[in-house]
Structures are given as C-alpha cells and as structure tokens.
UniProtKB/TrEMBL annotation:
InterPro entries: Fructo-/Ketosamine-3-kinase (IPR016477), Kinase-like_dom_sf (IPR011009)
Listed Gene3D superfamilies: 3.90.1200.10, Phosphorylase Kinase, domain 1
Protein's UniProt keywords contain Transport: no
Name of the protein this chain belongs to: Fructosamine kinase family protein
Length: 283
C-alpha cells in the first residue's frame, strides 16, 4: 500500500514493473526503499503517505539547488509527488581515506558561492515542520523571525513552551546583532547531521535529506556538532576553504536552538531541557 503511488508512476511512464522492493535503513519520519523494475530501472524512493502535499516537491528543489553548485553531489530527482520522491539510487560504500576532507572542502566551496538574499525560492520543511523562506535582506531578521520565533510560537501553541520561555527566546532573538557577526547569505543544507550524509560506492560524501535555503553558513557547521560532531579533519578542511569569524565555536549552540526547537515540535518534551540550557547560556 505504501508504494501504490510509485507503482502508478512507474507504469504510466513505461518504466516497468517492480521486481524488487527493499526497505533501506535510516529515516525517523519517512520510509526509504530501493526499487528495481523488470526493465532494469533502479530508484531510491522516499515515501510518506501523510506528507504535506508540497513536502517532496520542496525537497526536490533543495536537492537540485545543491546539485547545481557542482561542489558536493546530491541525488538526481526523477519525480516528486505528494506521497513520494523518486531519486537515483546511489549504492552505499565505506568512507574513503580522505572522506572528511572531501566533505569539509566541498561544503566550504558550497558556502562560498554567492546567494541572492536570505530565504529561498520557496518555503520547505525541516522534517515535517514547515520552514518559511521569504526573501529577506537582513540575516538577523531572517534567523530571528523565520527560524527562532517561528518555532517558538509553534511550540507555545502546542503547549510545549510557556509564555516565559517564548519571552526568553524573543529577548535572545533581539540580541542577535550583538552575538553574531555580519555574514552574507550562503546556500546551506539546513539539516546537516551525519544521518543526512550518504557514502557512495567510491567512499565519497553525498548530501541527502536537505532543508536547503540561503542562510548563514555557520548554521550548517552548528548542526554538525548537535549530535556528537564530525571528525576534526572535516573542520580543518572546511576552514581552509571558508574561514569563519573568530568565536564561531561559541556561537554554535545559539544556531542549534533552531533545531532543538524543531525537535521539540517534532518529538516532544524530551528536548525541552536542552532548549532551556541554551537560553540560560546566552542570558
């Protein structure tokens, strides 16, 4: 039943009949499948029957934006519909000896490419939480309104934050210009933890599951530290290509408040303590 829409797409586009469907690992929200047809067509399908109608279309736009930079690879998208995303299948491998250097250098080069403004061509999702991306010329306003305060207000409506908690986040958002240096907009992955980086058969990194937008480059680096951090070779290679302003490591928890609030909204109160810890650290 979960693959019914994909079966129809394959049939209607003369791509064959499914002869193998294997559930792949990973994914807290969506199911991922390897599909092979009798015409030797192979795909990776990301499926969620309850997905918002535009979720996979917006993810396709994120993947295309990353792919078009020519820096780090991302899967080619063949079809996006309400319930599934069909992409090229990229066989998995083990990390090459210079895997972390490839990832750091590639991300640094991606972040160095000019972006027109903060925001993106369309709104998208981080997980299944809407992620607004209106055009904005000020990074402080964008991160305050469209990241921190959007998530905080959503959490308050759901009973996950008190009015006092929201007031604390509003006060922190107002202080962004004194806590964060001026930064130009960059194309960022938007959800860059280790589970959203695939390793191909050559041992090279491939970016998957993005929530891409034009934002602060440091926010991507922050997300790499949220669940344990990447190898030091990654950070050395990144900084050699795209140096960050002094004090960047101290700013990372501030950026990760966005993702902690999103996890609070997605998964519940178990993330509340981490939200409070970040607020206390920046009082």
């Amino acid at each position: 039943m979960q693959l019914a829409a994909a079966h129809l797409w394959l049939r209607d586009n003369d791509l064959g009949t499914v002869v193998q469907a294997t559930r792949l690992g990973g994914g807290d929200i969506c199911a991922t499948w390897y599909i092979e047809t009798d015409l030797q067509q192979r795909f990776c399908l990301k499926v969620l029957e309850t997905a918002p109608a535009d979720m996979f279309h917006s993810e396709a736009a994120s993947l295309e934006a990353i792919h078009n930079t020519g820096t780090l690879p991302a899967p080619v998208v063949f079809e996006a519909q309400a319930q599934f995303l069909a992409m090229e299948y990229i066989a998995a491998g083990t990390p090459a000896g210079d895997y972390w250097q490839q990832l750091g250098r590639g991300l640094g080069l991606m972040h160095r490419q000019p972006a027109p403004h903060f925001g993106f061509g369309s709104d998208n999702y981080c997980g299944t939480t809407p992620q607004p991306n209106p055009r904005c010329d000020c990074g402080f306003d964008f991160f305050a309104e469209q990241r921190l305060l959007y998530q905080a207000r959503l959490a308050q409506r759901r009973g996950l934050l008190s009015s006092g908690d929201c007031q604390g986040i509003e006060q922190l958002a107002a202080r962004l210009p004194e806590l964060v240096p001026e930064q130009p907009p960059s194309l960022v992955h938007g959800d860059l933890w280790s589970g959203n980086i695939h390793i191909n058969s050559a041992g090279a990194p491939v970016l998957i599951d993005p929530a891409a937008h034009w934002g602060w480059a440091e926010t991507d680096i922050a997300m790499t530290r949220l669940f344990g951090g990447f190898a030091e070779d990654f950070y050395r290679a990144y900084l050699a290509v795209n140096p960050l302003a002094p004090g960047w490591e101290q700013r990372l928890p501030l950026y990760n408040l966005y993702h902690l609030l999103n996890h609070l909204n997605l998964f519940g109160r178990s993330y509340y303590g981490q939200v409070r810890s970040v607020l206390a650290a920046f009082q």
